[in-house]
């Protein structure tokens, strides 16, 4: 069974929904700004202001936040890609990067994910690998905003699948934004398989704020959060904090972490699981 879920309020009027996609809140604007930046290499404040029907000062705040996160460089009248910055690698390419570590993480997740109940799966290549690994023996419900995860679940028609709707973030092939957040507020997840770009004793981080609200909504909907990440993410760089370690019960990973960071994480009450 496959269902696409959005909040009823957001779908009352098709025309209104279309306008909301175009002129919605800050998170949606930043998603679209980044897509235009990667497409054209530069963006202009005045043009973005007209496109999104907001004040130029609002666009300047959006660009300032994206610049603070290392996504772009501010220039007179707009912004451009940082020197040497390339559009993010496609999902398929990232799937094959560090694939052995992802496989080991997925095997570790499989040992602790329940065989039924409601399991949420985050976006990203590692979370996708986890879903594909545990699906053959799973009989419950999967909730995800990840397009690749939802597509993979078509191989197992006995699994109930709820797809969370929203704005498509091409970089991560995931639905994000206010629509996704609103839908997740009406759902309940037993166990969430979460991904992150970096982990340290202060918490979990991602590279950009465009996926932040959706990740936090998934965490808020979950009874338990399992972080699925390989050891290279320990003390790696991440501009935006998602949550503290108090929201994570276990870290499913590929190998033992360096004692310094591992001890600090363990002291926070988080246990490590290896396949």
Tell me what the structure shows.
- The structure is a single chain.
- By secondary structure, this protein is of the alpha/beta class.
- It folds into two domains: 71 residues, Orthogonal Bundle (Arc Repressor Mutant, subunit A), CATH 1.10.10; 184 residues, Rossmann fold, CATH 3.40.50.1360.
- The protein is 38% helix and 23% strand.
- An eight-stranded parallel β-sheet has the order 1-7-6-5-10-13-15-16, with helices on both faces. Strands 2-4-3 form a three-stranded antiparallel β-sheet. The protein has a three-stranded antiparallel β-sheet with strand order 11-12-14.
- Helix 9 runs parallel beside helix 10.
- The two termini are 30 Å apart.
SS-based structural class? alpha/beta
* Topology, number of strands: 16
- Helix fraction? 25-40%
Strand-and-helix sequence, N→C? EHHEHHEEHHEHEHEEEHEEEHEEEHE
Mean pLDDT: 86
Give me the Rg, rounded: 19 Å
């Amino acid at each position: 069974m496959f269902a696409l879920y959005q909040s009823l309020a957001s779908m009352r009027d098709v025309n209104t929904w279309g306008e909301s996609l175009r002129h919605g809140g800050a998170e949606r604007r930043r998603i679209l700004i980044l897509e235009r930046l990667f497409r054209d290499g530069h963006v202009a404040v005045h043009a973005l202001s007209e496109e999104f029907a907001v004040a130029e000062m609002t666009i300047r705040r959006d660009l300032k936040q994206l610049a603070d996160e290392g996504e772009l460089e501010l220039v007179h009248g707009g912004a451009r890609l940082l020197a040497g910055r390339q559009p993010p690698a496609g999902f398929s390419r990232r799937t094959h990067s560090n694939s052995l570590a992802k496989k080991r993480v997925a095997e570790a997740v499989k040992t602790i994910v329940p065989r039924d109940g409601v399991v949420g799966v985050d976006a990203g290549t590692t979370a996708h690998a986890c879903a594909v690994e545990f699906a053959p023996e799973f009989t419950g419900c999967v909730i995800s905003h990840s397009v690749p995860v939802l597509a993979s679940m078509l191989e197992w028609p006995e699994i109930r699948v709820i797809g969370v709707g929203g704005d498509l973030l091409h970089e991560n092939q995931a639905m994000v934004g206010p629509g996704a957040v609103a839908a997740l507020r009406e759902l309940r997840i037993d166990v969430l398989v979460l991904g992150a770009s970096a982990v340290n004793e202060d918490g979990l981080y991602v590279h950009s704020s465009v996926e932040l609200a959706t990740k936090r909504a998934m965490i808020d909907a979950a009874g338990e959060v399992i972080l699925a990440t390989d050891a290279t993410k320990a003390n790696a760089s991440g501009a935006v904090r998602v949550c503290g370690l108090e929201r994570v019960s276990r870290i499913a990973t590929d190998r033992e972490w360096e004692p310094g960071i591992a001890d600090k994480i363990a002291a926070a009450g988080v246990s490590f699981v290896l396949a």
